[in-house]
Please model this.
Amino acid sequence: MTHAIQFDQVEKSFGALQVLKGISGYVAAGEVLSIIGSSGCGKSTLLRCLNRLEVIDRGRIVINELEISRSNLSNHELKQVRSRIGMVFQQFNLFPHLSVLENLTLAPQQVLKLSRRDSIDRARYYLQEVGLSDKIDVYPEQLSGGQRQRVAIARSLCMEPQAMLFDEPTSALDPELVGEVLSVMHRLAERGMTMVVVTHEIQFAREAASRVMFLDQGRVMEEGSAREVLTNPQSDRLTAFLSRMRQAQIA
Ligand code: ADP
Ligand code: MG
Model:
């Protein structure tokens, strides 16, 4: 039995710039892996590779037994990959001209071929999960940033993905809106969603992540239980990174 997500020796370059220099890791089913590291170290690129938004140069990525790094992936398989892995970005990427309900029902109808009725039932269910049942008919611009991000999470959940990838989901938010998004993510983690979370919220990583991976310049510099990595860093680079994070959060 392989892990829910497994990646081995992943390399990725953009032109002459090698961004991922042989990264390996895994996420067990129902586990939360948090990825931390300085800006530019390759966190977003790794997430995008896991969803095959980027094609890797070398290495291997297996998601629920499907090797998504194969060059001969069929369109059908590619669609499966995308619909089974939810992705939540820093910018919420909701369709501004569609209501919350329409944002939530579009992909389930088009990709999963759900009936309109079933897709609406699902949308209601997951909107309730993120505490926004009363916003079903409004447009994204009528929502706060925190509410938009919760809608974006609900939209992902409507696809009933096997795993979810979060790329700094709270870093575009005003500080007072961060908590409501983190608490939705906490709840997802408690319910056993397999999650990879790129975050600067060290507190969230400590509480919700089972494991933490520290990337530095395209390599895994430290990796282990959240407690080990966050309270007992082995490298100067991680020690310095954590102290910068702590200072930024106090400031
Ligand atoms: P992080 O998310 O850790 O801040 P990224 O994965 O976004 O880092 O980026 C890592 C490096 O790769 C950066 O130097 C960035 O400029 C570069 N990069 C990312 N995406 C592209 C791209 N599509 N084309 C060229 N360079 C890119
Ligand atoms: Mg990034």
